[in-house]
Amino acid sequence: MSDTVAPMLSVIPSRALVDENFKVVVENLPPGSPVTLHSLHQCEDKHYWEAYGHYTSNHRGTVSVTDDLSFGGTYTGKEAMGLLWSMRPVPGSREGLRLRKRNVCSPLLVNLSVYRGHVVEGFREQAPLASSLTERWYMAPGVQRIQIREKGVRGTLFLPPGPGPFPGLLDMWGGGGGLVEYRSALLGSHGYASLALEYFAPGEMKSADLEFNYFETAFNIVKDHPQVMPDKVGIFGLSLGAILTILLAAESSVVKPSCCVCISGNHLLPRGVTIKEALNMKSPKIRLDENNYEIWRDMGLPIPDDPTHKIDVGRINCPIMLVNGQDDQNWAAVESSDDIAQMMRAAGNLHLLTRLHYPDAGHLIEPPYTPHFRATKFVKDTKEKVILLWGGQTKPHSHAQEDSWKKILAFLEQNLYSSPTLKAKM
């Protein structure tokens, strides 16, 4: 490398929301130099995650991750955010890890470095040519985080900056349980009063936590909040949370959502069977792949013809968006989506349905630039620990996360805001 001017790595912006793009540029390299761009993050569980791409500097001695091709590494091609979405545990890490932000009041810190040559291992044993630290936030400045312990409901409410009133969201995650705040924090940063709902502890699914009125009460806590527009409240769910979203929209006489977003869900809940009973039904259709990862998708197949084995989606009377990956190995979400469309067509409410299907995307479709997790550890209600296969291929799954998030935000804005949103800035 040049002996006169040291290489310089810049990240713009260095501080941003997790769903915002950044621009990574290396300057002052000799023309035609092979270099490796590397990202490193230590998560709250102290595990290290990394991604890297191989580049060659142009005639000006510059590499731009946005504009230039990566010729190898954890991602290839022209991928502005590849240093985030292709992150994976460093070699030697435990199997089945999943990167999730627990403390949304602090940033996700990512160290970006440039190394001489096309490096594939041993990054932490080498001295980089230049480095830069970037902050990725779920919670924008001014967003309020409020613990909810009210009428038996447990969760965290995120309120956008300003006096409001704001449109509201009830935000529900899936069968892993626990209180998961990061998506609600990000929705709060986009102008929504979002309640991250906890409805059972990991591995401790209790019937009381899955009673229908628990979710109705949670929805009404959002609706009745003085800073929320009571007639502009939606529901957002992933996996089990999406099933509950469909159930509330179709069956509740109390909850009247303005719109619903359902990621990787289904409508298969037999009449007269409680949610807990349905989830605890032992299925001979669970199978193992060559790594002994559990595959659950066959449990939903074939989709039953008997309408008493399904939620009556013909009764849904608000706009609903279904987001699914076509390589979902946890649930037959695409087949379920097709059946939902048929049922709604027969009932005359198909005009309310928007469907997004993504080839080679898996079950865990998260906010953009979140690393792809094909299989992770999971604690069942029996306390048994297994590794579930979620599915998806890294690059198309990451594209699905980015594309669906933009379309979800546009859908929410169309159905919950009477005027365009003013997104909070870092």
UniProtKB/TrEMBL annotation:
Pfam families: BAAT_C, Bile_Hydr_Trans. Residues 19-150 form the Acyl-CoA thioester hydrolase/bile acid-CoA amino acid N-acetyltransferase domain. This is Acyl-CoA thioesterase 16. Belongs to the C/M/P thioester hydrolase family. Residues 211-417 form the BAAT/Acyl-CoA thioester hydrolase C-terminal domain. PANTHER family: ACYL-COA THIOESTERASE 17-RELATED, ACYL-COENZYME A THIOESTERASE-RELATED. The active site is at S239 (charge relay system), D328 (charge relay system), H363 (charge relay system). One of its GO terms (biological process) is acyl-CoA metabolic process. GO terms for molecular function: fatty acyl-CoA hydrolase activity. SUPFAM superfamilies: alpha/beta-Hydrolases.
